[in-house]
Amino acid sequence: MQSFTEENYLKIIYHLSSDTDAPVQTNAIAERMGTKAASVTDMIKKLADKQLIIYQKYQGVKLTDTGRRTAINIVRKHRLWEVFLVEKLSFKWDEVHDIAEELEHINSAELIERLDEFLAFPKNDPHGDPIPDKEGKFDSASFIKLNKLKINDQGLVMGVSEHSSAFLKHLEKLGLTLGKLVKVTDITDFDGSIELLVESKKINLSREVAKHILIKA
Amino acid sequence: MQSFTEENYLKIIYHLSSDTDAPVQTNAIAERMGTKAASVTDMIKKLADKQLIIYQKYQGVKLTDTGRRTAINIVRKHRLWEVFLVEKLSFKWDEVHDIAEELEHINSAELIERLDEFLAFPKNDPHGDPIPDKEGKFDSASFIKLNKLKINDQGLVMGVSEHSSAFLKHLEKLGLTLGKLVKVTDITDFDGSIELLVESKKINLSREVAKHILIKA
DNA sequence: AATGTTTTTTAGATTTGTCTAAACTTTTAG
DNA sequence: CTAAAAGTTTAGACAAATCTAAAAAACATT
Fold it and tell me: In chain A, how many H helices and how many E strands?
C-alpha cells in the first residue's frame, strides 16, 4: 500500500497526463502538489523504484499500468464519495471537493464496492466527471468545450473541467448547472465573450469561463 | 489541528482513563498504540506542550478539558461512521471497526453533523456504545457486566466492551446480539461458566466472554 | 532501609516528506 | 550555434514519529 502522499502524486500525474501522451514534468507536478521541484524529484524516484511510474532524469514521468490502475482507483473513490456527499448528505456541488480529497484515501475495497451499490452505481459525479468502474473502465466521453461553439449552436451542459468553489458558485448563480440546454446567441468581437440562452434567460460568459464548461451537442 | 497519530494517542488516553481517575501510564499507552514506551514519552511531551494533556515525568498523563473534548469528538465520529457502515452499507457489526478507525480522522465538522442527521441522530453504535452529541455529551449508561448476574437474574443485552471481530462473531453465532433477553439458568462451580437462556435456547458462556457483555436488568 | 524489579526517560539513530541553495541539463532565442 | 533562460537534480538540513540501548526513577519485598 501507498501513503496518502504517494497516492496524491499518482493522482496528479494521472490528471496531468490524461489529455496528452507526453511525459509529465517535474514543475507541473510541483505546482499541483504545492511543493517545490526538489521534493518532486525525490518522490518520483521513490515511485519509480516501486514501478508505479517510469522516470528518466530530466525527461519527466509516465505512469506504468500499475500506476495508472492505482490512480484511477483513487479517482473512482473520490468521485463516488462526491456523489454520496451531494446525493445523501445534501452538500452543494461546490462544497464536496475538499472532503472527498480526504475520503478518497480510505482504504477498503469492500467499502467502495458497497458504497457504489448504495449509490446505485452512478456513472458520473456531481460535476459530470465519469466514475470508473471496479475494473477502472469508463467512457472517456468526449464533450465539446463551450468556447468552441459557434453562434446558433446549442447543446446540453454535461460537466465542468474546473472544480474550484468560486467557479462552481458562479455557474450556479448563472443557472448553468448539469443538464441545462444552452444556445449561443452571440459572440462579442471585442474579447470573445459569449452570449447564451439558458432556459429562455440571456446570460453572458467570459471565454475563460466557457472554456471549462463541457457540452454535448 | 492534530495529526492522525496525535488523535490516536488522545483517543487511547481517553479510553484508558474513562473508568478511573488515575493518570494513564506510559506502558499502557504503548501497548494500545503498538509502539514502544520511548515513543510514547516523546509523543506525550508534544501533547503536553499543546495543552491537550497534563504530564508529570514518571507520573503518567491526564487529559485536559481541551484534550478530552478532542478525544470525545473522535469517538463521536468513529461511532457515527460505524452506524453508517452497518445501517446503510450492510456491514456486519464485526466488520466495521477498522474502517471506522480510518474514517474517524476525516476532518469536517459539517460532514459529521450532516451524517448524524442522515442517520437520524442515533444514540448508540452497533456495539451498543453511546454516541456523544455535538457538545460531547452522552449518557454514561451504567450497565451491568453479564458475569455479575446471579442465577435466575435476567436482562437485556445492551452492548459489549470488546470489539474484536473474533469476539463479535462468537456472540453472533451464539445468538447474543443487541436487544436480546437473557436469563441466567446456572453457574458452574468448576470454572464459573455461565448457562443462559436466550430466546428459549440454552447456551454456555465462559466467564471471560461474559465479562464483556453489558446487560440492563 | 537496602536491594532488585519494573517502569519511564534520555540519547542517538532511522524513515518519510519536505525545504533551500547550488549545480547541472535542456530549451529557447538571438 | 552559442549564450541566456528555464527546468531539473543533487547535497545537505529539518520536523515528525518511530526505534534500540542505556540510564534514571519509582515500586515492591524481604
Answer: 8, 8
Q: Which residue of B has its CA nearest to A120?
A: B89
CB contacts under 8 A, B 62-121 vs A, are 85, 88-91, 95, 98-99, 102-103, 106-108, 110-111, 114-115, 118
**Rounded to 5, what percent of chain A is helix, strand, coil?**
45, 20, 40
C-alpha to C-alpha distance for B35 and B38, rounded to whole angstroms: 8
Is residue A10 within 8 Å of residue A74, measured between CB atoms? yes
In 3D, which of A152, A142, A156, A212 has the Cα closest to residue A186?
A152
Query: Average pLDDT of each block of 10 consecutive residues along chain A (217 residues)?
Result: 92 90 93 95 95 94 95 97 98 96 96 98 94 91 88 93 91 92 92 90 92 91
- Check residue B131 and report its DSSP letter: P
What is d(CA A71, CA A5) in angstroms, rounded to the nearest whole number? 12
Amino acid of residue B210: A
**Which secondary-structure segment (H or E) carries B61?**
strand B61-63
Contacts of B63 (CB under 8 A, 6+ apart): B10, B13, B14, B17, B52, B53, B54, B71
Give the distance between the most distant pair of CA atoms in chain A. 57
The residue assigned the cell 482507483 is A73
CA at B5, C1' at C9: how many angstroms apart?
A: 21
pLDDT-based confidence at residue B85 (cuts at 50, 70, 90): very high
* Radius of gyration (C-alpha) of chain B in whole angstroms: 19
- Radius of gyration, CA atoms only, chain A: 19
Dist. CA A150–CA A143, nearest whole Å: 15
Q: Locate cell 451491568: which residue? A: B144
Which is it for strands A201-205 and B194-198: parallel, antiparallel or unpaired?
Answer: unpaired
Annotate A91-121 with DSSP letters as a single string.
Answer: --TTTSHHHHHHHTT---HHHHHHHHHHTT-
Residue B108 and residue A99: Cβ atoms within 8 Å? yes
